[in-house]
Structures are given as structure tokens and as C-alpha cells.
Amino acid sequence: MKDYKLIFAVLTVALVWGTTFLAIRVAVETIPAWFVAGIRQFLAAVIMLFVLLSKKEFRWIGWKSLGYQIIFSSLMLVVANGMTTVAEETVSSSLASLISACSPILVFLGSVAVGLQKFSLRALGGVLMCFSGILFIFWDGLQDLANPDYRMGMIFLFCAISGWASGTIFTKKLNIQSGNITLNLFYQFLFAGIVQIGLAFLFSENYNFGNWTLKSISAMLYLAVFGSVAAFFAFHYALTKISPVQVSILAYINTIIAIFLGWLIMDEPISVKFILAAVLIICGVFIINYKPGMFKNGKTEALKAGTS
């Protein structure tokens, strides 16, 4: 018998997270990036609070747990999500999604460095394939780095994937028990929202609220409701049914969807070299993550991973 809830959850994660890069690009057309990121996270925190209150699960998590949530939020939301949003002010959504797809490389290399994972020739091949893809990205766009805005956008993107990788490794290394996921998410979203809105007032040169278009505001609301809340719940539901590695395959689908939508809706150019770069990076990341039996059901492993 088919698990329709699982199918719906998987499709939600693949489609929604695949559209977030496009939504960010639309949102930052008239709204300063840090405002987009901050308001998105703050609204997500409000939604989480309503969920917790309705279930009578809202409580104080203690200073130690709060410290973990702040570190995780700083790396994964403030740095990774925030800097990706800032980067998309000057970088296309398709390129942002493709660079973000490289984050598993840093996760792997960092895990090897701290002793969480062993290096292998197969993994080396995957890493080299990913870096080959990155070279193809800059093959035609090397001269674009002379543009200071584009150059800063790329720097922000690499800072973003470094933040995501660091947050992932931090969680694995300390083997943090998540407890109530919704409760932890509330504190993470709230902290990130407050910090990013503060950064918005500090670094945004022009935040005239009257210039914000309905189109950009709608994209920002979409990011809060669907990109931050709905997709996350779907992601964790999927983790209770299938293995984390199986769920991670969705990241490849996200990238393909983001590239396609950027081309279809935003008229972002896609060259043959860009497509080749995408193939190399996606295949390289797959090789790095591949494990025998990864397509078998792994509910027990998934439940364990969901609490790390």
C-alpha cells in the first residue's frame, strides 16, 4: 500500500525548496536582502509559536540548549540562509542554487578533518568532479569577477555554504539531541529573525518601505510559510519514513528545479558549460554521499538522524 503522506512530503520538499531560490530572487528585487531573510525567519518563528501554543508545548529549553540553538541558528540561518539571500541581489537564482549544491563537499571534507568520516578514493573522485563543475561555472564568467557586485555575491555564496557545512558538522560532532523539533525551531527562527532584521537596519542603504512591491512581499511571505515552515515539517516527516541519505537525494532535484525556474521565469541564461557544470556537481555530490543499500528503507536510521 502506498504511503500517500510520504509521497506528498517528498514532493513538498523537492518542489518548495526547489522554488526558494527563485522566490528569494523575486523578493530582493525591491526589498533589501537582510530584510527578506529577517522577516522570513521572524514570521516563521511566529508560526512556530502558534503551533506550540495550540499543542501546549511551548516552554523554556534551558540555557545550555539555547546556546546550541543559537550556534546552530547563527551558522545555518543567519550565515547560510542570510548570505545566500544577500548574494541573490547580484547573482542569478540558478547560479546560487548550483553553488549551494556544493555544500555537501564542504560537509564531507570537514567531517574528514574532524574525524567523523573516512576519506576514500571514491570520495576523492566525487570531490574532483565537483571542483571540475565549479571550474566550468567560472570558465565563461571569469571576467564577471571584475564586477565588484558580482564578486561580492560569489563571496557571500561561498560564505553561505561554509556556514551550512559548519552547522551540519557542529550538529554531527556534538550529537545534539533535538527533543521537540518545533520548539527548537522556534528559538532558532526567532534568534535569526531578530539578528537579521538588526543587520537590515544596519547595512541596508535604502529601506524605503513604500518601494516594496506586492510581488516581492508575496515572495517573502511564501519563503516564510512554505520555504521555512511547511518544507521543514515535510522534510522531518520524510526522515521518519526513509533514510537520511534517501532524503538528501532531494537536494539534487531542488537544484534542477531552481535552474529550470530561473531560466523559465527570470530569463536567466543557461549555457552548455553551465549545464555540464550542473551535471558534474550533482554527480560528484551523489558519488560522495553514495552508500551501498542507500535506496533501501531505513526508518530506524532515519529516526536516529532526526534527533541529531
Automatic annotation (TrEMBL):
The chain crosses the membrane at residues 33-53, 65-83, 95-116, 123-139, 151-171, 183-204, 216-235, 247-266, 272-290. Keywords: Membrane, Transmembrane, Transmembrane helix. Its main location: membrane. One of its GO terms (cellular component) is membrane. It is a multi-pass membrane protein. It is found in: Membrane. The keyword Membrane applies. It holds the Pfam family EamA. Residues 7-138, 152-289 form the EamA domain. This is Permease. It comes from Chryseobacterium indologenes (Flavobacterium indologenes).
